[in-house]
Design a protein that fits this description.
- This protein has helices at 3-45, 51-68, 75-96, 104-110, 114-125, 131-145, 162-166, 212-216, 228-231, 236-243, 289-292, 298-301, and strands at residues 189-197, 201-205, 208-211, 250-257, 265-267, 272-280, 304-311, 314-321, 329-331, 350-360, 365-369, 374-381, 394-395.
- The strands form 3 sheets. The protein has an 8-stranded antiparallel β-sheet with strand order 10-6-7-8-12-4-1-13, with helices on one face. Strands 5-11-9 form a 3-stranded antiparallel β-sheet, with no helix packed on it.
- A hairpin with a 2-residue loop joins β2 and β3 (208-211).
- Helices cover 36% and strands 20% of the residues.
- By secondary structure, the chain is α+β, with helices and mostly antiparallel strands.
- The protein contains 12 helices and 13 strands.
């Protein structure tokens, strides 16, 4: 049964329960009115009876009637009914105006203890499974999430836990790195958005944006001399320009969503040099495209690790964005990185680490997610740079993002 049919069935059941509750409540009120009227009439006809006796008789009759009707509405039914009605309201509103939600729903979602639940899930996923059950569990998982078991370079029994299975290695020839370009896909997944970045409002999915300045933070990393004057203009209107090493170039972005069934390791997209790592703790909201399509600034709200440096075309920022139930983000050459931990002290927004001259080659293994998440790639290139991909396309690590090569030039001093 599809999700839409289940939703419609839930709405119909909730509506029926609401109508029944309303009719029963109306019947109770109508009966209560009759009793009160009857009691009042008897009191009027027997005026010789003392006033106190009438009051006692009225209260006694009313209490006996109430005791006969022990109306107890289960808490679960009430919550369920409210949730369905709220979802129905949101669905109708979303169908009319496909835009961001706001107000109480956002506040409720942001206040959920997703960091705690993610750590609990991470602990559960790290539990060692019995060898006899591993093949069955992993095969069911692969069937449910459409993971390709033929690509795995190991036996299923060799993965002690679900977390180890999530970051499974592939056979040596399972992913070929394109040689006709110096910019390739850093991971498997689905392309959510790509294209030039002309302002701080950057597309996270079609029609929904996040703030680039909040996503990367202040541009106080090393720059070449020819961009020092531009760097001083760190207002939002000039932020994109401040990132470019060559003002004649343009900034581009690529966003890839890793579903639970995808290969969860990510690689270097090009030959480049990492200068700085910036870690934002943030939230652990879901990065599912459906959520990203109605929650603005999702990427700049979530926990993320941004590696900043240079490649042949100029500036590059490589971001691994955390999500709900992502036990951790691990980067192999960054042993000091620890994600999905307890909240930092109030006022601490980010943490920087200087990498000096860390060289990475195109296609080199870079890190891993302990569940599905998102990779955001921001890089500088000439204005004639053309992507050879499409929005919604399933892409594999190593596939070329463009057919052209960018000539290398020295940018850093």
């Amino acid at each position: 049964m599809s999700i839409s049919r289940i939703s419609r069935l839930a709405i119909e059941v909730a509506s029926y329960e609401a109508r029944v509750t309303y009719k029963c409540s109306y019947a109770v009120i109508r009966s209560a009115r009759k009793i009160v009227t009857s009691i009042s009439g008897q009191g009027i006809r027997s005026q010789s009876t003392a006033t106190n006796d009438n009051q006692v008789q009225t209260e006694s009759s009313w209490r006996s009637y109430v005791r006969q009707w022990q109306w107890k509405i289960p808490l679960g039914l009430g919550v369920y009914l409210l949730a369905v009605l709220q979802w129905r309201y949101f669905t109708r509103r979303h169908e009319i105006n496909k835009g961001p939600i706001e107000g109480l729903m956002v506040e409720c979602y942001l206040s959920l203890p997703l960091r705690i639940t993610s750590r609990v899930w991470g602990g559960f996923a790290n539990l060692q499974l019995p060898v006899s059950l591993r093949s069955t569990i992993y095969s069911c998982y692969a069937k449910l999430f459409k993971a390709n078991l033929d690509e795995i370079d190991a036996s299923l029994t060799e993965f002690p836990s679900l977390s180890d299975f999530f970051v499974r290695p592939l056979k040596p020839n399972a992913r070929l790195v394109a040689q006709n370009t110096n910019m390739v896909s850093p991971s498997d997944g689905r392309v959510l958005h790509f294209g030039p970045v002309t302002s701080c409002k950057v597309e996270q999915v079609k029609g929904m944006t996040y703030n680039l300045q909040h996503f990367l933070g202040e541009p106080n990393w090393p720059h070449s001399e020819n961009s020092t004057s531009i760097l001083a203009k760190n207002h939002c209107d000039n932020y994109v320009t401040s990132l470019l090493h060559n003002p004649e170039n343009e900034l581009y972005q690529l966003t890839i969503y890793l579903a639970p069934g995808d290969y969860h390791r990510f690689h270097s997209p090009a030959d480049w040099t990492v200068r700085l790592r910036r870690h934002f703790q943030g939230k652990l909201l879901s990065v599912n495209p459906r959520i990203a399509s109605w929650l603005p600034d999702l990427f700049s709200l979530n926990e993320r690790v941004v590696y900043i440096g240079e490649w042949a075309g100029g500036f590059m920022a490589y971001a691994a964005v955390g999500a709900t139930n992502v036990g951790s983000i691990r980067v192999y050459k960054d042993q000091n990185l620890v994600t999905n931990t307890k909240k930092w002290p109030k006022g601490k927004n980010s943490e920087d680490a200087d990498f000096g001259d860390l060289k990475l080659e195109k296609g080199e293994l870079f890190g891993e997610f302990r569940m599905g998440s998102t990779i955001v790639l921001l890089f500088e290139a000439p204005k004639d740079f053309k992507f050879c991909t499409e929005v919604g396309q399933k892409i594999k690590m190593g596939e070329g993002l463009t057919d052209c090569k960018i000539s290398e030039r020295r940018i850093w001093n």
